[in-house]
């Protein structure tokens, strides 16, 4: 009995430090509330980071919320409803221009081109941009990045969107595809996977890429309030490192492999469509291969905004961009 009592005491003493160790490890896990502007294959590396456990490897527990719209996403971030937001960089410029003591800082880039495509109602074998003149063009919401890029590209090809087209841009984002499918417009600017689905169903035909035409821009980036970054530098660095791992994984794997990994986040979309979309985005360099947001991209973004008459004022790259976390992530 005495021997059994000693053994029991030994096991009890052994369990205490193991339990404490487990509790310590649990406490080390940092919860990050992440708000994404929409759910899109456009953000494939993010879902790879989640599915492959790259955030968990860094000791981060990601609570992902889809906030459906740039304004709503930024409101969620500014009000403290999220720690980090995935949204267009132009939103950080709008916030800063309104005056703030706690600016929103871009610290990691996810996509580096526009994600929309020009879709024609009829098949065109030899497309040229001047074929849009005199047509009815169903564009995106005024002031949004897709519309600004759309106008920038049209002007680049000598088309005045407000004089040479019957431009429709008062249709709500969620209803643009349905409006086109119902017969509105000769051309429409669409995101994937809708563009590819329309092509498969014979409702429209992709004739050009706005992303290819507009060049590299910080289209969607991870950002957080300056105060959050200062208080959570270690977590921001870990978050950025997980994203970089995912960017490298997407770059080094086939569209089919990427599609299979992210499919759980798009259960209502056919796997073959996801693969096609990923392949299209990969081939045109939409997915950034590292989290760096360089000055050239930043200035191109502001040129596009200025061309559309939506730039409140020019903001220096160093004011709203912090590449230090991306540089550290890449160094390791």
Automatic annotation (TrEMBL):
Give the signal sequence positions: 1-22
Q: Which UniProt keywords apply?
A: Signal
Its primary localisation, in coarse terms, equals periplasm
Provide the protein's localization. Periplasm
- Pfam families recorded for this chain? NMT1_2
A GO cellular component annotated for this chain's UniProt record is: periplasmic space
Highest taxon in the source lineage: Bacteria
Protein name as catalogued: ABC transporter substrate-binding protein
Q: Which organism is it from?
A: Parageobacillus caldoxylosilyticus NBRC 107762
């Amino acid at each position: 009995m005495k021997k059994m009592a000693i053994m029991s005491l030994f096991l009890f003493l052994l369990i205490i430090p193991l339990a404490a160790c487990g509790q310590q490890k649990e406490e080390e896990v940092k919860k990050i509330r992440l708000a994404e502007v929409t759910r899109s294959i456009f953000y494939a590396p993010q879902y790879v980071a989640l599915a492959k456990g790259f955030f968990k490897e860094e000791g981060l527990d990601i609570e992902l919320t889809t906030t459906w719209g740039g304004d709503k996403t930024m409101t969620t971030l500014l009000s403290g409803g999220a720690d980090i937001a995935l949204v267009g960089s132009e939103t950080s410029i709008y916030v800063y221009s309104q005056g703030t003591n706690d600016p929103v800082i871009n610290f990691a880039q996810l996509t580096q081109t526009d994600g929309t495509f020009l879709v024609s109602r009829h098949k065109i074998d030899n497309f040229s941009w001047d074929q849009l003149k005199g047509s009815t063009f169903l564009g995106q919401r005024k002031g949004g990045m897709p519309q600004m890029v759309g106008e920038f590209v049209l002007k680049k090809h000598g088309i005045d969107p407000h004089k040479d087209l019957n431009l429709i841009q008062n249709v709500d984002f969620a209803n643009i595809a349905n409006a086109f499918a119902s017969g509105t417009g000769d051309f429409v600017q669409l995101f994937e996977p809708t563009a590819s689905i329309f092509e498969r169903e014979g409702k429209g035909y992709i004739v050009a890429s706005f992303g290819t035409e507009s060049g590299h821009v910080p289209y969607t980036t991870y950002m957080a309030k300056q105060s959050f970054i200062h208080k959570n530098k270690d977590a921001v660095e870990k978050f950025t490192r997980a994203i970089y791992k995912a960017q490298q994984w997407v770059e080094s794997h086939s569209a089919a492999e990427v599609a299979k990994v992210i499919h759980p986040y798009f259960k209502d979309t056919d796997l073959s469509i996801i693969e096609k979309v990923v392949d299209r985005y990969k081939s045109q360099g939409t997915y950034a291969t590292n989290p760096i947001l360089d000055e050239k991209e930043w200035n191109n973004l502001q040129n596009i905004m200025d061309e559309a008459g939506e730039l409140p004022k020019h903001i220096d790259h160093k004011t709203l961009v912090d590449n230090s976390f991306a540089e550290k992530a890449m160094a390791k």
